[in-house]
Every structure is written in C-alpha cells, then in structure tokens.
Write a sequence for this structure.
C-alpha cells in the first residue's frame, strides 16, 4: 500500500509527460527541437508532439551535456553532430588531457632529478 506507483512503459509520450519525466519545462523541449536535429518528435493528427523512448534518451543526453557537464548549446550540438556518443568523446578528451599533463610532469621531474645529480657530482 505504501509503495510508489510503477511507471508504465508507453510507446508514445506527450510533451507534458516528457516534461515531468525529464524535469524540464515544455518550452525548453520545444527550443531544443530547433537546435538539435536529432530531436524531432513526430506530431499526431491533432498536431501534438509524440515523443518515443529514443527521443527521451536524446533529451536526457542533452540535459546531461548542458546542465551537468556545462557544455554550451553549440558545444552540445557539435558533440551530437560528430556521430559519436557524447560520453565517449568526453572520456577521450579527458584521457588525452590527462596523458599530456602526465608527460609534462614526468619531463619536469626528470629535469629536477638531473639538476640534483649535477649538484651532487659538483660537490
């Protein structure tokens, strides 16, 4: 009796339902449709948007890029238009930056050790 109602999987969702699921205002969803070509929910005979699960997944990815990872709209569009998943690209960028930083640190440590050795040999 005290359990929460179960979410029913549906084939199509209205903009109001998607707004509640994603915690985004309907005007935000409509705006994102104009910016992201991957987000194009079809409309029914009455002209209402009918979102599918794949549309909701795309919305959640966009929300993650913009709100959690702090991408700009343009940056998020670039991530999607590149054809790769945004998470993979961000992971690759972080690895590359990390490797470059590690290389720089190793070079500096090596230089410091060489200068210590030179100092020891002179004394």
């Amino acid at each position: 009796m005290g359990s929460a109602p179960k979410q029913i999987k549906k084939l199509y969702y209205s903009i109001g339902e998607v707004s509640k699921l994603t915690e985004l205002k309907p005007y935000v969803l409509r705006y994102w449709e104009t910016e992201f070509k991957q987000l194009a929910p079809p409309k029914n005979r009455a002209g209402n948007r009918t979102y599918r699960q794949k549309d909701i997944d795309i919305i959640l990815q966009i929300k993650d890029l913009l709100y959690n990872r702090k991408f700009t709209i343009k940056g998020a569009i670039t991530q999607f238009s590149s054809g790769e998943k945004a998470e993979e690209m961000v992971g690759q960028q972080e690895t590359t930056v990390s490797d470059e930083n590690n290389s720089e640190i190793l070079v500096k440590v090596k230089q410091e050790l060489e200068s210590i050795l030179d100092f020891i040999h002179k004394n």
Remarks:
- Residues 1-83 form a domain with the Multidrug-efflux Transporter Regulator; Chain: A; Domain 2 fold (CATH 1.10.1660.10).
- The chain has five helices and no strands.
